[in-house]
Give the backbone structure.
Amino acid sequence: MSAASRRVLVVGSGGREHALAWKLARDGAEVISAPGNAGTAQVGENVPIQACDIPGLVALARDRDIDLTVVGPEAPLVAGIVDAFQASGRRIFGPTARAAQIEGSKLFCKQILHRGDVPTAMFREFRTPQRARDFLEAREDVPVVVKADGLAAGKGVFVCPDRAAALEAIATLSEDPQFAAAARGILVEERLDGREVSVMAITDGRTIVTLPALQDHKAAYDGDQGPNTGGMGAYCPTPFVDAELMADIEARILVPTVHSMRRAKVPFQGVLFAGLMLTPQGPKVLEFNARFGDPECEALMVLLDSSLLEILDASVDRRLESIQPPSWKSGASVTVVMASEEYPGSVAKGRPIRGLDAAAAIDGVEVFHSATRFADGPSPRSVVNDGGRTLAVTAVGETLARAKLRAYSAVREIRWSGAWCRKDIADKGIDHVRMLAASDADPAAGPTGARL
Ligand code: AMP
Ligand code: GLY
């Protein structure tokens, strides 16, 4: 079937899903988003079915004769959307519910890593808060990380400088009703120090296609200050992962994880997303996710020259080894998340957003929507904010510094009441490139050979 006649369903409503829909549309597919947002409506059709309405999505795929479904967020994956599609004979990109446990259960992840001898933080697991407290009281007062075993919308991880903070985290996990399900198991982990990077690989369960490394910015405010968020910006490729380190990450982390899952009879098909800490002892896994990162996906898609559709097809059909390695634009990309007032707290919605067209008109800029909707009718003039992380303003450039300049020129065109963003996205990477240049080292970055 030619790309022109392909109908693809993208499940989700964030910036990641807009970037996937945008790229798939450029690859020639007819894209339907469920439920989508005001941005995805501009690259295809939106159907108002929620990402967790699995029977509704299966019916949509059947009724609209969808040829391939791509799932953005983790919740439907963990809830079994892939199993449901497969049971009704429909093609879908992503891991089964059991395989998605690599993200859905931190303990399952640790077991897979342990069996594959993959480097990660040392940990202990506790079935009751009291056992976790006893453990902390009995040992030296050192920094630890306390984690809920299950999915907790990114809020179940507490990096604790000392015992008192760790005890407080355990109290929060055991008392706050929002953690009731996720905190059935509690992990206490060694705190790792170093630089954090994101490395994703698309796999069919046997072969992996590694994507260029990125850096996310999880803290809300400049200088990595303030509360943890879903991610306030990303850039690609990051110079902290050179070709040699990437080969090491593949050989010691990604490939053994894929094999370990296969040996455990839980083969993983889809995107394996490794959150890594680059420690003095080498890269170690902080966590695995079972999907594309957000905002990492936005920064990746604008650099991908090859057809995403072909890569996803090859993963679904278990023939990744037969396709050419993807080609990437030279240069770099930067995504700046524009958030609404009070994020990461709860935000006021429905504020009109201005300047989207002027921003998108800047050469090399794509404005992906993370949480928007139309107030009345599908016109750019009626776009309003509909959540915290609202836009993912993305730009490419020959260098990281130029991509950053462009992204922020676009940000300056856009306004709504209460809009804000971090001003320092990509600065760590830009400083590192300068440092490498000053020390005359080879600034090659990433598996793409792209130079910053
Ligand atoms: P999340 O992506 O919401 O699960 O947040 C996890 C974040 O907690 C990571 O991005 C790290 O910044 C931090 N983190 C998790 N585990 C560790 C660890 N063992 N040592 C240090 N930081 C950690
Ligand atoms: N940006 C981190 C994540 O998607 O989990």
Summary: The pocket of glycine (ligand 2) is lined by residues 216, 231, 289, 293-294, 296 (CB under 6 Å). DSSP finds 14 helices and 22 strands in the chain.
